[in-house]
Write a structure and sequence with these properties.
single chain, about 240 residues, alpha/beta, Carbamate kinase, nine-stranded mixed beta sheet, 7 helices, globular
Amino acid sequence: MQEVEPRYKRVLLKLSGEVLMGDKQFGVDANVVDRLAKEVKEGHGLGVEIGIMIGGGNFFRGVSEEGKQFERSTADTAGMLATVMNGLILQDALEKIGLQTRVLSAIQMPQVCEMFIRRRAMRHLEKGRVVIFVAGTGHPYFSTDTGAALRALEIGAQAILKGTKVDGVFSDDPQKNREAMFYRSLTFQEVLEKNLRVMDQTAVALCRENKLAIHVFNIRVPGNIPAILRGDDIGTTIKA
């Protein structure tokens, strides 16, 4: 059987914390985490170097209704710490199936994980390790979307894979509006002009300025991660 040449050599996978909940209202669904770990392993087996930026919304989000009750910097910092818990959980799932993994944090916590240093992250990737980025950018007022764009550029990723609850980018929320139009491909300018909620505008602007492609896809459909890396036409592609 002929080996498939992957679409990219190095990518940044953006996962929200909510993805890890599955159908739960809070916390982590172990079955979902195990499935995602297996998909990452399959994608890694294609010869792709994979970095992962993970959110913390399944535990706490600074911009949530609960978060608004607190001072923004405090709430955002709590959200960043929630991403660390998710990163450690995902690391455990990946290592149980044989993938060497490193968690790199934007906030110093040496007893728990390594501090993010760009060259260290690239070295881990070159050695075949999956690198999980946690604590966002390390600063309040910045989302993990922006953190994903920043880390993707720092490690020289060729694309961001953005996992969502729907099949890609639509003109409106397809779960509320059945008439919402699906976009197979978009330019960054179209995303900004149409105010499409792909990622926050800071993240989109960073990708546009640096010509970093974004693939938006349904993370809940099993097999989508390796399928995109093989080159299958899944979800929405956003390019310059």
